[in-house]
């Protein structure tokens, strides 16, 4: 398959690039820098440019999404809008604009996270964004068939515990290998409208 991978230079994206490539897929990487296509997908105009440059695709895989972490009392309307643009609208645009560029039975795989169902202190923006993406996936699945759409909703990565573990006390973690396996299931499988929890 020919796969567009966004967030391709981050922790998860770099791992997915190797894993999907090792399975014989052709990867077109997207990131703000150091990728095949250097674009900021939080800007809908840049999403348009990505698809114009990428050519025909069999799948779109998202490993990108940024949200602010602050106590509710310190959050501003701009912070919540930043979370919406950084994780929700950017991924919705990948799907909305991607429909005519992805083959008839192709797929979209988006990223959410554990905070959609397990909140933490300072995580309201992330919880909001993750839950919104998951609701979108379920709703879009009934409209875009035979194209498919799923989301991956992991815990904090084991490999990222040194930097983020203190934000997730007692919540465990998930290895990148297990997260990547959920992406493989979404891309190569047949289900749609699923929220995979690796």
UniProtKB/TrEMBL annotation:
Q: Which InterPro entries match?
A: NAD(P)-bd_dom_sf, SDR_DHRS6-like, SDR_fam
Q: Which UniProt keywords apply?
A: Oxidoreductase
The transmembrane residues are: none
Query: Gene3D superfamilies, from UniProt?
Result: NAD(P)-binding Rossmann-like Domain
Name the SUPFAM superfamilies on file: NAD(P)-binding Rossmann-fold domains
Q: Which GO terms describe its molecular function?
A: oxidoreductase activity
Signal peptide residues are none
- Superkingdom per UniProt: Bacteria
Q: Record's family?
A: Belongs to the short-chain dehydrogenases/reductases (SDR) family.
- The name this protein carries in UniProt is NADP-dependent 3-hydroxy acid dehydrogenase YdfG
Q: Which source organism does the UniProt entry give?
A: Actinoplanes philippinensis
């Amino acid at each position: 398959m020919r796969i567009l991978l966004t967030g391709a230079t981050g922790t998860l994206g770099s791992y997915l690039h190797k894993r999907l490539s090792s399975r014989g897929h052709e990867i077109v990487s997207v990131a703000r820098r150091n990728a095949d296509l250097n674009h900021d997908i939080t800007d809908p105009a840049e999403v348009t440019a990505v698809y114009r440059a990428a050519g025909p695709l069999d799948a779109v895989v998202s490993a990108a999404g940024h949200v602010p972490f602050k106590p509710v009392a310190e959050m501003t309307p701009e912070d919540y809008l930043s979370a919406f643009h950084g994780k929700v609208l950017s991924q919705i645009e990948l799907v909305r604009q991607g429909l005519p560029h992805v083959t008839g039975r192709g797929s979209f795989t988006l990223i959410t996270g554990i905070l959609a169902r397990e909140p933490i202190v300072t995580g309201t923006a992330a919880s909001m964004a993750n839950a919104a993406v998951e609701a979108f996936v379920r709703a879009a699945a009934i409209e875009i068939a035979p194209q498919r759409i799923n989301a991956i909703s992991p815990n904090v990565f084991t490999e990222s515990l040194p930097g983020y573990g203190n934000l997730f006390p007692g919540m465990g973690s998930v290895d990148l290998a297990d997260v990547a396996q959920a992406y493989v299931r979404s891309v190569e499988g047949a289900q749609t409208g699923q929220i995979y929890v690796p």
